[in-house]
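dude i think i finally got it to work??
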Amino acid sequence: MTTITEYIRYRVRAEDSDAFEEAYTLAAVQLAAAPQCVGYDLARCVDEPDHYILRIEWTSAADHIDGFRGGPLFAEFFAPIQPYLSAVQEMRHYRSTAVHGAGGSVPTLYEWLGGTDALERLTTVFYDRVRGDELIGPLFAHMDPDHPRYVAMWLAEVFGGPTRYSQERGGYHHMLGQHLGKAITEPQRRRWVSLLMDAADEAGLPADPEFRAAFTSYVEWGTRLAVANSQPGAHPATEAPMPHWGWGVAPPFKG
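look at this
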């Protein structure tokens, strides 16, 4: 997936700088919740402290303009920063070029693992294993034939790929509904993880330590959350944002 980076350059009076940063702290809550937003940061110039640059990475310019600006999160994003609109000196989208060094563009996990084809290969292998498993097979006894493809869509979005799960399947809210009331046990969770890791090997996902560390990190987080949400009497947040998973502390090494 090729992303688009939006740069917004501000010139903010020194006496307003604390309030400006606080406003973006509030606005950033909506960015973090937006499936169209891959990442963001606000930087302050060292040489001229009244200059700021906000960098937002979007899944595409259209996703930003039509998806985010036209969506339900924009109003709450815009409200705290609206007073600083007159301080904007530039607001443009940029696409990375082929000119970059070792510290340049880092691929998303989605790109690194091989995209949708690789994820559909993974979920096909995985659910073939699940169906015949005595411990977790009963949880999937009435599985939709398209379930492996839907899970691949979910993983694609989580790992920085297309946002189809949010657009076509209802995002986090829908995935949460698949676990409510299932009373998943810890042994079942561990078997799920074990079978998925075996399927990742069989499906030929990258085996480098950096990718597998990030992949395993998400799987541990996601399965533990699923267990907690599936218990009788659980009251999970139903409108939480889609998770977006990155490399964490170990990005891919380019020697």
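The CA atoms of residues 173 and 238 lie 6 Å apart.
im so relieved honestly
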